Task: inverse folding
């Protein structure tokens, strides 16, 4: 960036270089900021391997920078001739590392290290150039009282750098530190030694994908003969996980210096006989022995703790191709067993791939697969019946004979490694054990909330599970002691769920990600060495647009099987003439559609990115109302059309927010600290807002009413254990659901009395426009939209739903009404298939 001129400093009588930013470019605030940051970054340093900056100023509105004049060529021009000799590559690498170490000590991360920004002078000195992307991070005041380094940061999520030399964290737009420069250095050292770029692909997008998922070919495969120790330095620099790289450029420089010293001469120089005294010689001998012992211990520790490079995925193989597979829950070695949450079926497919087949002889209504027995002969299955406690069965794979075990929390149950016991949790938060034949059920301990799904360690000593609405991972011994949270403080806003151990117990895999679509697979390194240390943070194994379901290990531990989904939906409306669902608003991928009272405007949430928008009724004139990390749902318009209230998940939990319908900053409805709030709705007169409170996934919930004038909150009588309130158009009635979504209640505001209107699995109860009936979605094997009069009676069929549907909440679907009471749904245009992921370096 900028133009460089050769000039002479007449006062100091020296040749210099002047870099000028043209006036038309300097009008761009971003480029001007980068130019000024380059000047600040380089001027803060004084090191022989970093370009020296003499002056910075402006002339006729154009900024300029005066630096030392360099004669030679860039490293890129040298590499165009082919790989460098090993000694030359080590020498250049050592100089780069020393320059980086000096920059990092000043809190400066370059972030755009590449051969074009490295200059080799005629006398062999290497200089680091162009700190235009440098990140100046705040440093603590020095002990001598010197001023701290200025802080200039790039927003997280902004991808900056050069494709091919960017670190994985840069590609993701994440937080970067000095280890980002280490990764770029590794790519440059690889290129110096091999003559080929480490991650070059035909496009930048493919190159960045390779940086995230692939390792470069071994340098030995390029035809170069490289010492193993030098290859290990390159590999360590190029680790995907920053924790596995050199922790500092100083350490990197030390490692290269050692290689330089060891390779400086092929022969060992003759030694002059020493005249040390016997005592001094003995002291040196003891010191040498101590060093050897320490080195042995460290090597033993590294060998046992790391046992080679960290776990990674080297290959993805798609096993199914029908686009709507279920979730993989287990394997018997030759088959994979899947559960489908929409069809309520249990399916199977060969581990080598092929057609998915439904197992016909389960004998359990609405089955949910929970686990597969260690010997592969039996399935652990729950029957979803719309209550907190779901009956848990063992089902024989051959013949379908089933045996009732116990009632357990939904999604809870896991076989012990020997197949003799089953662990399960209860809705009130107890962790229990039962024999696999259904005898001797007993409580281990209380874990303080709904715990699911469960995973038993291969040695049978530990049980792990998710808790807090899948917000955290926990661990307990199989005897009921030492309950504690795993990874406290790691990505607190993300879901963490559904872990599985490798068969040898060395790795623990789980999924994590933001609420809604986006879960990726992570691994915890469980290998222990002399000092019994494990990896501080999980290693991310997958990335990109595919959302992954919980992984299942193959019996030999060399592969994992998981269902991968790409998410998209099509908004459809039931056409009253044809009685068929037709695309609405052009079939946009949106859900949670809410109309203003006059029907002229609508609000909706785009799927799967979860952003709230306001638009005209025809979808034109869109205005964005929210941004991540808020995850909005259930928007509702104020009667006057000026405000929209909605529920949103954030790092602070689910709460009710309010935002002007014309746009602006969303605000918490109840700003003070309070328990979670969900499902808001306006009173017809616009003076009150009703909402539910209580911890998601718990059995505690209540309905509250906020008076907007007085800001007073009151409880709705008799609302304990109810949620999802909805005000009738005339304001005289309120609907609510039981927490197990099996009962629809209606509250008469005049008599203050609750009555039961409907019983059965259902979701999204909505008032008709005239207030005489309630529409809802029947969530069972025969999906349908029903309507029931508020006076009671039988629910009548509005329309069957025979297509695949989707959504971010409510178990993966959404249902709504337009102003004419025509049903709206989000038809699923996503694809879900089963993949085999090959694990490497285990």
Result:
């Amino acid at each position: 960036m900028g133009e460089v001129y050769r000039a002479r400093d007449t006062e100091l009588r020296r040749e210099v270089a002047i870099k000028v930013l043209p006036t038309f470019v300097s009008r761009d605030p971003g480029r001007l900021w980068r130019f000024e940051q380059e000047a600040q970054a380089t001027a803060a340093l004084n090191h022989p391997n970093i370009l020296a900056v003499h002056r910075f100023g402006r002339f006729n509105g154009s900024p300029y920078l005066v630096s030392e004049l360099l004669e030679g060529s860039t490293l890129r021009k040298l590499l165009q001739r082919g790989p460098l000799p090993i000694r030359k590559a080590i020498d250049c690498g050592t100089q780069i590392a020393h320059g980086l170490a000096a920059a990092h000590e000043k809190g400066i991360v370059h972030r755009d290290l590449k051969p074009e920004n490295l200059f080799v002078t005629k006398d062999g000195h290497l200089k680091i150039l162009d700190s235009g992307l440098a990140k100046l991070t705040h440093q603590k005041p020095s002990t001598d009282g010197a001023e701290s380094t200025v802080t200039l940061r790039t927003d997280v999520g902004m991808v900056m750098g050069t494709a091919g030399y960017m670190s994985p964290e840069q590609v993701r737009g994440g937080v970067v530190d000095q280890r980002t420069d280490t990764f770029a250095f590794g790519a440059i050292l690889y290129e110096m030694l091999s003559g080929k770029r480490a991650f070059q692909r035909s496009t930048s997008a493919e190159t960045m994908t390779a940086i995230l998922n692939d390792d470069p070919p071994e340098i030995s495969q390029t035809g170069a003969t490289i010492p193993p120790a030098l290859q290990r330095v390159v590999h360590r620099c190029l680790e995907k996980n920053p924790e596995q790289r050199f922790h500092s450029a100083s350490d990197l420089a030390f490692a290269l210096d050692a290689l330089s010293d060891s390779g400086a001469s092929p022969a060992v120089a003759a030694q002059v006989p020493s005249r040390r005294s016997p005592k001094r010689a003995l002291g040196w001998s003891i010191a040498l022995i101590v060093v050897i012992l320490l080195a042995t211990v460290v090597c033993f520790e590294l060998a046992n703790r790391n046992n080679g490079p960290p776990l990674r995925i080297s290959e993805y193989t798609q096993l199914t191709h029908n686009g709507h597979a279920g979730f993989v829950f287990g394997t018997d070695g030759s088959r994979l067993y899947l559960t489908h949450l929409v069809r309520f079926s249990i399916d199977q497919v060969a581990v080598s791939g092929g057609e998915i087949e439904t197992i016909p002889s389960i004998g359990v209504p609405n089955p949910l697969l929970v686990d597969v027995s260690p010997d592969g002969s039996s399935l652990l299955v729950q029957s979803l019946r719309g209550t907190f406690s779901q009956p848990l069965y063992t089902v024989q794979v051959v013949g379908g004979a089933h045996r009732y075990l116990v009632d357990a929390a939904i999604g809870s149950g896991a076989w012990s490694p020997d197949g003799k016991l089953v662990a399960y949790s209860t809705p009130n938060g107890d962790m229990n054990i039962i024999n696999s034949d259904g005898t001797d059920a007993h409580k281990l301990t209380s874990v303080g909330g709904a715990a699911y799904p469960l995973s038993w360690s291969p040695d049978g000593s530990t049980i792990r599970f998710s808790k807090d609405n899948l917000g955290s991972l926990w661990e307990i011994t199989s005897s009921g002691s030492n309950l504690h949270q795993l990874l406290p403080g790691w990505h607190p806003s993300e879901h963490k769920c559904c872990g599985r151990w490798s068969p040898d117990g060395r790795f623990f895999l789980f999924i994590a990600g933001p609420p809604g679509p986006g879960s990726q697979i992570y691994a915890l390194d469980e290998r222990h060495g002399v000092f019994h240390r494990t990896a501080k943070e999980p290693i991310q194994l997958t990335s990109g647009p595919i959302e992954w379901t919980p992984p299942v290990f193959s019996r030999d531990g060399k592969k994992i099987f998981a269902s991968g989904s790409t998410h998209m939906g099509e908004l459809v409306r039931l056409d009253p003439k044809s009685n068929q669902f037709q695309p609405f608003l052009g079939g946009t991928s949106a859900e949670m559609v809410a109309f203003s009272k006059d029907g002229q405007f609508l609000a909706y949430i785009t799927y799967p990115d979860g952003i709230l928008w306001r638009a005209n009724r025809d979808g034109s004139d869109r205005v964005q109302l929210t941004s991540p990390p808020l995850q909005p749902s259930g928007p509702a318009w104020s009667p006057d059309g000026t405000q929209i209230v909605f529920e949103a998940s954030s790092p602070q939990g689910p709460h009710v927010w309010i935002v002007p319908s014309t746009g602006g900053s969303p605000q918490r409805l109840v700003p003070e600290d309070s328990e979670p709030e969900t499902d808001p709705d306006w009173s017809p007169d616009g003076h009150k807002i009703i909402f539910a409170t209580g911890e998601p996934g718990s059995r505690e919930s209540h309905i509250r009413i906020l008076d907007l004038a007085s800001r007073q909150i009151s409880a709705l009588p008799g609302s304990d254990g109810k949620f999802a309130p909805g005000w009738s158009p005339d304001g005289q009635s309120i609907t609510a659901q039981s927490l197990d979504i099996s009962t629809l209640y209606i509250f008469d505001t005049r008599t203050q009395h609750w009555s039961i209107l409907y019983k059965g699995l259902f979701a999204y109860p909505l008032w008709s426009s005239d207030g005489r009936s309630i529409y809802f979605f029947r969530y069972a094997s025969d999906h349908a939209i029903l309507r029931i009069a508020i006076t009671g009676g039988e629910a009548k069929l509005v329309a069957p739903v025979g297509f695949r549907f989707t959504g971010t909440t409510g178990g993966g679907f959404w249902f709504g009404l337009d102003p004419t009471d025509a049903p709206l749904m989000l038809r699923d245009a996503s694809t879900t298939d089963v993949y085999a992921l090959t694990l490497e370096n285990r």
